[in-house]
């Protein structure tokens, strides 16, 4: 009889990964600490050792996970801003189940650091009022992704028994050239507006 494999140690990363899977496949409403514990094969109370504030901390961690984006500075501020917007869009599209959290939770932890980093990059590249520009860019990206997810036909499923088609972000074979073109067109207009401001 083969020896049993030792259980994989519980970690904050494993908890977040399992929570993202539940939110993306079953909907954020179905993400409970008990269901998360079942998915991780641990008692729900074990999760609190890694997230002492429980579900509040989990929701913050999920929002941070999809909004803490970093890019290397480009040749000028427009290139840096464009790469940041593309990376943010990709991160948000990867996990539509927690999009609502990204839209409503203020940046904390790594997400707040990423916003500061982006502001500093744009300011150092010569963009006046970089903080205002970052707010406008974030609003555009978040709004654009919300519209994309809505138009894709993906809706938060009520449970695993739903027949709804799963959302497939570009990295998993989904996405469309039209959505990409719309996003880039809007981004061009926003960057042009920032240049005139």
TrEMBL record:
Organism of origin is Planomonospora sphaerica
Return the annotated DNA-binding positions: 32-51
All copies of the HTH tetR-type domain together span: 9-69
Question: A Gene Ontology molecular-function term?
Answer: DNA-binding transcription factor activity
Q: Which Pfam families match?
A: TetR_C_1, TetR_N
The cross-references to InterPro entries, in alphabetical order and at most eight, read:
Homeodomain-like_sf, HTH-type_TetR-like_transc_reg, HTH_TetR, Repressor_TetR_C, Tet_transcr_reg_TetR, Tet_transcr_reg_TetR-rel_C_sf
Record key words, sorted: DNA-binding, Repressor, Transcription, Transcription regulation
Q: Which domain of life is it from?
A: Bacteria
- One GO term of the biological process aspect: negative regulation of DNA-templated transcription
DNA-binding as a keyword? yes
**Region called Disordered, residue ranges:** 155-180
What name has this protein been given in UniProt? TetR family transcriptional regulator
